[in-house]
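Hi support team,

I've been running sequence recovery on a batch of backbones for a student project. Most finish fine, but this one hangs at about 90% for roughly twenty minutes before it completes. I'm not sure whether the input is malformed or the queue is just slow. I've pasted the structure tokens below so you can try to reproduce it. Let me know if you need the job ID as well.

Thanks,
M.K.
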């Protein structure tokens, strides 16, 4: 009777075999990390789009200048070697939405016979806008793939660098903040619509 009791104790102290399938596997963590990067990329895409919208308001004193900026952004900055045309597509929707909804002619007449007073400021920001389009294209393209090689990985540092460049763009445009607001730019009012545009498009293309 005593030996049976000892055997029972021994049996109950045996370690259970570890489960082969863990709910917290490396793959699970990688998927969670990727989803977090997608959310951050979407946020950054919205922020960049807001700066595009602000630039349009800054140039709205001269229709020709504003349209030249939009054409350059969509055609020249975004037409070479891009792999995720959805980014340029979103920017096109943003441009059309801002123009049709918010850009109003002064005294009922669009001025399009010269150069905007803020044209030089936008030229100063040219490379930042180029970076915004091209780097977001790269990020969305990689995150949209089910599998990607290590050389195609979107690192957290990439997103941090993109955010830093947006901060620099914001700092440049801040010098003309009073002008953009006087021309009707209301960041929060426009933001909700831009968030919707990005969310719908990326979901439709299964990229985010």
């Amino acid at each position: 009777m005593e030996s049976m009791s000892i055997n029972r104790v021994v049996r109950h102290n045996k370690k259970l075999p570890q489960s082969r399938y863990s709910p917290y596997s490396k793959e699970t963590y990688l998927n969670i990390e990727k989803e977090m990067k997608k959310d951050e990329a979407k946020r950054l895409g919205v922020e960049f789009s807001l700066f595009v919208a602000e630039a349009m308001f800054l140039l709205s004193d001269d229709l020709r200048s504003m349209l030249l900026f939009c054409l350059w952004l969509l055609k020249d900055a975004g037409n070479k070697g891009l792999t995720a045309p959805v980014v340029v597509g979103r920017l096109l929707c943003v441009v059309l939405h801002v123009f049709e909804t918010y850009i109003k002619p002064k005294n009922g007449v669009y001025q399009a016979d010269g150069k905007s007073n803020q044209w030089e400021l936008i030229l100063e920001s040219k490379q930042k806008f180029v970076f915004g389009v091209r780097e977001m294209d790269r990020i969305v393209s990689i995150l949209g793939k089910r599998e990607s090689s290590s050389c195609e990985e979107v690192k957290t540092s990439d997103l941090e660098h993109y955010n830093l460049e947006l901060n620099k763009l914001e700092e440049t445009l801040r010098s003309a903040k009073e002008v953009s607001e006087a021309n009707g730019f209301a960041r929060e009012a426009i933001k909700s619509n831009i968030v919707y545009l990005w969310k719908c498009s990326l979901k439709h293309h299964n990229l985010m």
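--
Follow-up from support: It reproduced on our side and the slowdown came from queue contention, not your input. Residues 22 and 28 are 9 Å apart (CA to CA). No action needed from you.
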